[in-house]
Amino acid sequence: MRKAIRWLPSVIWMAVIFLLSARTADDMDSFLPFFQWLFPAMRSFDWGHFVAYFILSITFLWAIGGARPGWLMKAAAVGLCLLYGLSDEYHQSFVPGRMPDMLDIRNDLIGAAIAMLFVSIPLVRRAYAALYRKLVSSTKY
User: Which one of 54, 61, 70, 88 is CB 3.0 to 4.6 Å from 111, fit for a cystine?
Assistant: First the structure.
């Protein structure tokens, strides 16, 4: 049962991504304009996808990786993000004014990969392991 509950953050975050993907193009035009203003050279970079998949990869790692995940688990988290990103782009093909875009997949993978690099920083890695052990050992399910 513990392993199933560790997937809950991933399932919730995938639902958030699904709901955001269901928004029409007009709704999305006003989403995260601050980043485009802050980084004008990166106008083609979709920060929404980057942030969403940065978070999603960490939730996947939480579900599959344990307290001290190795590179194989981190690669698996990025791979799961790729699969979900592909399904997300397919879903967008049914939303008015939206269409699948390979640049979105690129941004998804960049976000997921940078998240795995971030979790590999020694200070972050120790904090992640401590939080994981504390939460897993303290839950009585």
Answer: 54
Query: According to DSSP H, which parts of 22-97 are helical?
Result: 25-28, 33-38, 47-64, 71-92
**Residue whose token pair is 């972050």:** 124
- Residue 47 pLDDT class (50, 70, 90 cuts): confident
Neighbours of 82 (CB within 10 A): 15
CA distance 4 to 70: 21
Residue 46's nearest CA partner among 101, 88, 4 is 101
Distance, in Å, from the CA atom of 119 to the CA atom of 58, rounded to the nearest integer, reads: 8
Task: Give residue 47's region: left, alpha or beta (phi > 0; psi -120 to 50).
Answer: alpha
Q: Are 5 and 141 in contact (CB under 8 A)?
A: yes
Residue 74 pLDDT greater than 80, yes or no: yes
Element (H, E) at 123: helix 122-138
